Every structure is written in structure tokens, then in C-alpha cells.
Amino acid sequence: MESKELIGYIAAFFTTFSMLPQFIRMIRLKEAKDVSIFMPSMMTIGVFLWLLYGIFLKEPPIIIANVVSLILSITVLIAKIRYR
Amino acid sequence: MESKELIGYIAAFFTTFSMLPQFIRMIRLKEAKDVSIFMPSMMTIGVFLWLLYGIFLKEPPIIIANVVSLILSITVLIAKIRYR
Fold first, then answer.
1. A23-63 pLDDT, tens per residue?
2. Cβ-Cβ contacts under 8 Å, A15 against chain B
3. Which residues of B touch A53 (CB under 8 A)?
4. Given a cut of 90, is residue A78 above it in pLDDT?
5. What value of ipTM does the predicted structure carry?
6. Structure confidence at residue A61 (pLDDT)
7. For chain A, where are the alpha helices, taking DSSP H only?
8. Is the dihedral of CA B31, B74, A66, A55 positive or negative?
9. A36, A51, A52: best mutation site toward chain B, by most B Cβ within 10 Å?
10. Where do the domains of chain B lie?
11. CATH class of domain segment(s) B3-83
């Protein structure tokens, strides 16, 4: 694997999984007041469009990373709505 | 512009600017308790690596989008540290 490819994969890992600790924190605190509802909303729309883009390009790495991101973004959005 | 390219640009707009409402909310509330520090931290690391990736590939759209994302992620991280 080329070094730029490796950088891309590590980058994808960090941006994709950045929503996971946010989800865990809201679940732990049972509170989400300080989280803007627009953050996971915009993330969900954007990631959904990245997924479409990956499907258009037939690029499995883009598709896979954005399926995971989409699930995590929707999870954060639901937690925000649930805990307010 | 091809439709897939347009989808990519709209996707980049949403994912890039999703951090802005989060920053505004913390500034308004002067509080960030419910925001996980790992969310903007991981986002900052990931976006920085995407920026390196864009520089390696010499792809201006990747570079520009991730410079903006990097600034916004760092801003959210600073606000989280500032307001706790």
C-alpha cells in the first residue's frame, strides 16, 4: 500500500469514528443540551451524499466508510432528539 | 459539471460546515458539558490527515475543503476546552 493511501485510510478512520465518543457521552449523561441538532443533521445529509457519490464512482472505500459514518451520524441525531 | 461532481461538492459543504452550528451553540450557551472532547479531537486529527492526503494527491478541492474543516474542528475543540 502506498503511503498516501495509508494516510487516506487513517484519515477515514478518525473522521468516521469521531461521532462514536459523542454518542457514548450523550448515552452516559442522558443529556444532549449542549449538542447542536444541526451538527448531526448536517453530518447525516453530507455523509448520505458522500455515499451516493461513492456509489456513482463505484468506489468501495468511499461506500464502506460512509455507510459506517451514516449509521453513526443517525445514531447521534437520534440520541440528541431523545435526550434534548 | 457532472451530476456526481455536484453531489460531491454538496456533500463536502454539509460535512465541512456541520461543525459550525456546534461551535455557535457552545458560544451561545457558554457550556459544552454534553460535548465529548474526543469528537472534535478525532475530527481534527482525521481532517488534518485528509489535508495531507489532498496535498499528496495535489487535489485542490480536497485541500480547500479540509483547510476549512480543520479550522472549524479546532474551533470546536477550543470551545470545548474553554467551556468544559
1. 999 999 999 999 999 999 999 999 999 999 999 988 888 89
2. 42-43, 46-47, 50
3. 4, 7-8, 11
4. yes
5. 0.92
6. 86
7. 3-17, 19-29, 38-57, 60-83
8. positive
9. A36
10. 3-83
11. mainly alpha
